[in-house]
Structure formats: C-alpha cells, structure tokens
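Notes continue from the previous slide.

Worked example: a multi-chain complex. Inputs as given:
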Amino acid sequence: MTAPRTLFDKLWDSHVVGRRDDGSCLLWIDRHFVHEGSHHAFRKLSERGIPVSEPGLTFGVADHYVPTRGRARSGGTGTAGIENPTIRGMVTTLEENTKAHGIHLFGLGDRRQGIVHVVGPEQGLTLPGLTIVCGDSHTSTHGAFGAMAFGIGATDVAHVMATQTIWKKKLKVLRIRVDGRLGPGVGAKDVALAWIARLGADGARGHVVEYAGPVVEGLTMEGRMTLCNLSIEGGARCGMVAPDAVTLDYLHDRPFAPKGDEWEVAEAAWRALASDDGAEFDREVTLDGSDIAPVVTWGTSPEDAAPIDATVPDPDRASEERAGHIRAALDYMGLAPGRPLDGIAIDQVFIGSCTNARIEDLRAAAAVLKGRRAQVPGLVSPGSSLVKAQAEAEGLDQIFRAAGLEWVESGCSMCVGMNGDIVAPGKRCASTTNRNFRGRQGPGARTHLMSPAMVAAAAIAGHLTDVRPMLEGRT
Amino acid sequence: MSGWSRHEGLGVALPDESIDTDQLIPARFMATPRAQGYGRFLLHDLRHDAEGRPLPDFPLNRVPDATILITGRNFGAGSSREAAVYALVDAGIRAVLAPSFGDIFAANAINNGLLPARISSGDMERLTGAMPDRLEIDLMARCVTGGGLQALFELDPVWQMKLVNGWDDIDLTGAHQDDIAAFATADRIRRPWARPAAERSLS
Ligand code: SF4
C-alpha cells in the first residue's frame, strides 16, 4: 500500500519529467497562458531563434493593456481604435507574437476576451489535475479546480514556451480549513483577507495552500476562484481546492473541456485527486467561518486588513517590528490611528479584476445597489466579455447604470492601471481588486480592498460601511 | 549569464518592510523594451517627488553606486513582473538582503543573477543600524561581512549553484529533451483529456 498523498502530491507526481541531483524536478506544463506583458519572454525566444514547443497548449489573452472604453466605436475589433500608441503597441505585439507562433489568441474584439484568469476557466481550458502557468501571480486562481497553477516571471515564461516544462523544487503544503458557516453578506473575499490578516502577507511563503472544510465545500466555483486568487497575497505560490460535484458541474459543456467518453475518463481521474484520508500536511490552520465579518483593508499590504467594525490600528500599540510599517501605511493612506473603519469617506469605487468580477460578484454588488444611488463615481468592468454579455442579459448593467456607475468593457483596468484607468493621486477608492500596494491603482492612489457587496455598500454610503444592514430584506 | 561567487560593494539600507513589486517598478514603465535599461525606473515613485525630481534624502539617491540593498521583510511581494528584478539589476544592485522575499520575485532574481539572501531580522537590524559602507558577500559560505559585522544568510542550495555557475535553465533542460518527448507521448495515452478538446463550433 502506498502512503496517503495530498492533492498537491498527486499533481506533482503525475507531472515529473525528470529530476536533478539537487532535488529539483522538471515538471510538464499542461496549459500556458500569455498576455501583453509576455513581450519580454517572446523576445528572449526570438533572440535564441527557438519556436514555441507546444503552441496547442499555449493560449493568449489580451487583458492587461486593453482599453475598457471606446471599443464598440472601433467596431469591437482590432487595435486601431486604441489612441495611446504605447498601449496600442502592447496589444498589437501580443497579436503579432501569438500569430507568429501559432498560438490561439482571445484578442481584443473576440467575444470571449477577458481577464486571463476568468477566460481560462470559462472556456474549460482550466481543468482539474493540470499544471497551469502564466506570467501573472494570480494564476493561483486556477487552483480552484484542483489544478497546480502558479505565476512565473519572464525567464520562466520563455522556458515554458521553449520546452513546455519548468524546473521546480517541491513546495510545502499548508491546509487551511474553514469550519462553521459564513454569515449573510460574508463571502470568499472576506475569508481570504481574514486568513492573510492572521498569518501575514508572507505567512504562506514556500507553501501551496489547500483549502478545505465545510465553508470551502459550500462555495461556488466563483467563490473558490476568489479564495485561490488571493493565496498569492498571503505569500503562497498556489491555492487549491479538491475537485467535487460543484467543479464538475461548472466544467461540463465548456468549449475546451473534454467531451463524451473522454469526459468519463477525465471525471474518474478527477474524482481520485482529493487528498487521501490520513495524508499529512506540513502545516494546518483552522478558521471558524462563523467568526468572519466583512473585511476591509486600511493599509498598503493585503495583511493590513480588519473587520469593518474595527478601528484603524495604533502603531504605538503595535510591536516595534510592525509599528514602522503601520506608521508609513497610515501616512500614505491619510488615516489617523484609532478611528473607526466604518465611516472613512471614499472618492470612488471600482468593481473588477480577476479577483471579483465574475458573474456572481456582479450579482452580489447589484443586489446591494438595486434601486439605490451611489454617492461617488465608479467603474464596473466585468471579468470577461462573456460575463459582460451575461450580466446584460440579466439586467445587471441597468442596475449599475441607474446607481450612477459606469459600465465598461472587460480587462484588467483599474486593478493595475496599465490601460490608463487609474485612481488620481490622493484619491481613495473602495475596490474589489487584490492589491492595495502604494501606487497600484495609480501614483498616490489610496486603495481599500473589500468584497463586491462591500464596495457596493461603500458606493451607496459614500464611505466604508458594513453591507449587512443594507442586505436586510433582500436576498 | 555569468556566474559569481564573491562580491564586494557599497551597501544601502532601506529598512521598510513589504517593498512590493509595484513599488520596485510602477506598472506604467513596463511597456519599455529592456534594451532601453530599467535602472531609472527602480523605486521610481519613492525616489522622486510628484514632479519627478529626485528626493535627495532617499537612501538610494544618497548612495547611487550601491550594489547591496538591505531591507525589511516580504521584499518583492506581489506581481510576477520580472521587470522588478530588471530595475534592480540595471541600477547595479547585485544582492538584496532581507528577512523574507516574495517567492516569485526570488525565483526571478536568481534567473537574472541577483542574490536574494535571507538574513534574520536581528541581523537586518544590526546591519542597517551600523550600515558599514562596504560589504562583502561570499556566496559559497553564505555569509556577508562588513564593518566588523558578520551575518550568515539562507539560500536554497539549488539557487546557490545556479548563481555561482550562471546557469541558464533553457540550456540545462536541453539535456532532458528525450525525457520530455517520452513524457509527452506517454501522457497522451495516460491522460487523453489533458489536452484541450477541439473547440466546439460557436453559434
Ligand atoms: S486583473 Fe489584476 S491581478 Fe488579475 S490578471 Fe489582471 S492585473 Fe493581474
């Protein structure tokens, strides 16, 4: 009998192509996603005159630099309508590189275009049991399907293009169990920020996180993706959830997912992926979901997070190690120690990004906004063009518009500001994104991370506030 | 890329924690071709005022020739953007000493010959407190010395060898070409579902 294995062990073992004496393994990569930012890697490849070894396993997505406005005007196709030459150049270069190497591109104007970590799952390219890489740290998102998915830098992107493999030393596994039940108005984003606040932004460094327990099992795929997406913000390279009936339901009939007999074979393989009883984890942490309240961040690292009913921390009461960071963060954020988080006035909101712009996220925000007016301006950018179409079919766009928010096209947008959608210096934004780093949403921008429902509540109140009372009497 | 095992140079302290990749290189610079050099983008928004003038008191502006950076925990957290490493390398930095690093950042650093050396918080404070001008790094001994101080650092042995030898993974992997081909062939049979199904016709 073989020793019980974790989900991660099984994924690892099934992808080892070779080993080096030093203990690192050469792993086969099943899916490789590239985007505009991959230009460095394409250049490395062309400098060496190497082709992409498995173009059929490589998929391009235009997301990081695409404009979110004015796309319909250019006929929805082509990059010619992009005014900024640098941005146009980035999107065009991706088109040229993918074409030259025979890589399928979900480009600007494709009705399936969107943020890479939304498109992959939506198209059924993301499957349980796969290894998935992309030059974007939030590739951890795809782990929600029971895949081993992680972000890599340009040198490794070039290596994967050249060889369809990557060198890696085995990671440790941290299992995070979430017991109990989440209260109304509390979701995956709050669970993620709660564990990151507890363990720190480097708390899971060197680990893969496997999420388990009744709260995780009860999450939809959208929620699991949010949870895995944020794993990187706690220092983990990957997040993962064992595939189950929820996973299979989501994947069935997706365009690139297995069909017919192949589906049957795949399903059997996927069902065997869950960690075995008695499998050992390097670390285990348990959270009680019933204790988690809606969380917001107050500082410049995702670990600077607290329940909405808490106050801004006082550096004088923190450990010496922590005090310096808190002081600098509060100075940047323009916040005084000790003040309640509830009531911090905001200038604008953003609903978008691969963390929280899937259909369920938009529904959650719309449920709060319906029939209400936002006190501040804001942008809603769906996670993909298909999500956009679905939201419009459900009338969600009307709710956002009636509330006074701008409904735009899909892309990374204000998550990273590369396409020009930025928060002005000193302005405060309630955002569904994943990073509250200094300058992430633009130089001098002040970002507060929270769930889509909490962003909607902040929009209506004009300040950070607890969404729960606003949900009373609504489903 | 050439390997290295010893380095002596000017140190600079940046004791903040969680200096993330978005600070190391703000996103708006990332469309620049590498050939143009990324050094001027390093920590751009921390080093300059809102009008783009260098802040004379910022440590890196005070020691422009520094090659060794000593900083707080969680350095390089965040994005996989290798441009964060390009900015450091192009600005002449050879080693960063910190209590912890973002995992992807550290891997990217190694791929570009930049040492991410993990030192204890105590050593970090001792070094930044005294801040000797010159520091010397011995990669094989995993040791940094300067001003009478000495600190040992942690570094994955695989990464150590890569830095010392200046190994390039693509070249190394070349030796495994047959293994890769054999894996791919066997895998098509073992996991036929793992390749993307032919795309359905979209209505
Ligand atoms: S939305 Fe933000 S985090 Fe997600 S892929 Fe785009 S830039 Fe990266």
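Summary box: The mean pLDDT of chain A is 96. Chain A touches chain B through 84 residues (CB under 8 Å).
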